[in-house]
Write a structure and sequence with these properties.
Strand order of the largest sheet: 11-12-10-13-14-9-15
Largest sheet: 7 strands, parallel
Structural class: alpha/beta
Oligomer: single chain
Number of helices: 23
Shape: globular
CATH topology of the domain at 265-456: Rossmann fold
Helix content: 25-40%
CATH class of the domain at 265-456: Alpha Beta
Radius of gyration: 30 Å
CATH superfamily of the domain at 265-456: P-loop containing nucleotide triphosphate hydrolases
Amino acid sequence: MTDSPAADAAVALDSPLAGILGAGTVKALEKGLGVVTVGDLLSHYPRRYVRHGELTALSHLPRDENVTIVAEVLEVRERTMKSKKGSILEAKISDGKGILTLTFFNQSWRTKDLKPHVRGLFAGKVTDYRGQLQLAHPDYEMFDADAAPVGSAAAREWAQTPIPVYPATGSLPSWQIRKAIEFVLDELVVLPDPLPFDLKKERRLLDAGRAIELVHRPKTEGDWKSAQDTLRFTEAFVLQAALLQQRAATKEQRATARVPTPGGFLERFDAALSFTLTGDQKAVGAEVAADIARSQPMNRLVQGEVGSGKTLVALRAMLAVADSGGQAALLAPTEVLAAQHLRSIVKVLGPDLAAELMPTLLTGQLPVAERRKAMLRIVSGQSRIVIGTHALLTATVDFFDLGLVVVDEQHRFGVEQRETLRLKGIVPPHVLVLTATPIPRTVAMTVFGDLDVSTISELPAGRGGIESFVVPLAEKPTWSSRVWARVTEELERGHQVFVVCPAIAPKQVEEGESLEATTMPPVAVETLLAELKAAPALSSARIEGLHGKMPSETKDTIMRAFAAGEIDVLVATTVIEVGIDVPNASAMVVMDADRFGVSQLHQLRGRVGRGGVKGLCLLVTHAEADSLARQRVEAVAATLDGFELAEIDLTLRQEGDVLGSNQSGGRSSLRLLRVATDGDLIADARDAAAKLIGGDPGLRSVPALREAVRRRLDESERTWLTKN
């Protein structure tokens, strides 16, 4: 430790590190890692383990990233700087094959530590200087070469002892974190165990204190592996207990039961339908109907493929609510999608039902007079179906009797926004969340564990299907001309085409671009639009652009024109990702496809092939064949199964941050648990937690678990669970 710690009282998991560790270490832990309490520090688990006798392969070190490695000093040299006063100390370290240079300025004293043939841990940022890898001013911790006589059993044991390597920062190397943890472990009182004794015995798990000790101070490889097994299950169990506890609390609330009336809106709607519902639509519709007919608020997530009919299921629930005298609000992420929802709902309802239900659109761009009329229809209860964007969330919008909240594309909204709309009900309304982004089973259990989840995987009959192809311009640059030739062929057949770009204007990247995307400038709508309009082969085509920064009226006009067949080629950003329904659009070209995620590409592709004509999706990319970005694009082209793609995406991303900022708005990530690989363990933990909470919702019989649930979820996460 670089600071002198002062511990005057018994140390518990909730104890702040301030006063236990030195001020400098406390500040570095909080600023760099968000670690504030003893519990935070002890759950900052090692990223990996190395041994005193094990060397790191230097050839695989990533450039411009902070690393912690084990290496052996080869030689140390000091030379005087020519251009200014002072000296440079250079030490060459090796893994036996490659060489890495450590560089220090005016630090001659380091020759006392850095001696040839001595091994140690070295931490710093890897840079490339004149073709050679180097660490400039790295931190290091040298191993004690005299720890035991060479060749003795003690020496062999020392060489094989695992050394934990922690996720670190530039100012706080791994071994400083290790020393802080070891000091806290020595001061810690008995560690409370959140796992019931019978559960530990049945699964042969360690006590909590023993698991924490062995994960941070293992003597053998088996020590840290068994510790990780216990801690991984504990993490899953605590999280599932929190989710199931919230589900139980939700069931205790009271809502208004919404039951359709004979001869009412829903019955008349179903009688007039010109098509038959799919089996999945019927099954999920029955689940939703049963939920809203109860006096407990529904909290259901409906996931389904693009075009599977989730909105129709939601509309039938809205009509059941209208039958009971209530209102339904559909919250859409964009004005384009909200306007399309209104048009499609009015169309499918027919003139008579539409006149009685008076579907109303409320967006931020409505003229003042139109907005006032809409708000009056909403507050008076005239409008039984309200469709809107974030404008629905404003304090001036009041409902007569809000009975159902439908959130479309739930990932586009923050928790606070959804909660604001829910609180506009006189009593808690029923909540139906829709997503066309398939959710892997483990994510559904871990993130949406307090929701009931329904799945619509069956597509309506009559769809033409979609063929997808990767256009790899890195290897086949001449294929670019073929892309536009295929566009021309589709236009000659009387069809329409989407062209998607990741940016609006040059050097302006839209939110959501992948971090692994190629470093080439992104293709922009404005640039490509001008190029296509100037292309001789497309001289007779009607080509227009669309992006999120256009005025709402302009966006709506363009989308209406495209839907009416008055535009042949629409060059757009991802504003067309969800909800846009143009059956005559047969082809889509996605430029820089490697800049989008798997789910986003799947969503985009779902805009074509919606009519009876087979769809075509061309995924244009400059990404190299072996890159992660290219793997994502290839995966999308290989299958139309969104649920399979969701699993592939999860595996590729190695998702570890499930209750993180994207979900709750606060800092939190899974520690050891990985939803990509721990599905069976999560399911097992959920079953065990369900049995416990079924008989003890307040967790009174296991106070340590009750405290672990409280400790695991920071304030924003508890808010998220309460409001979800």
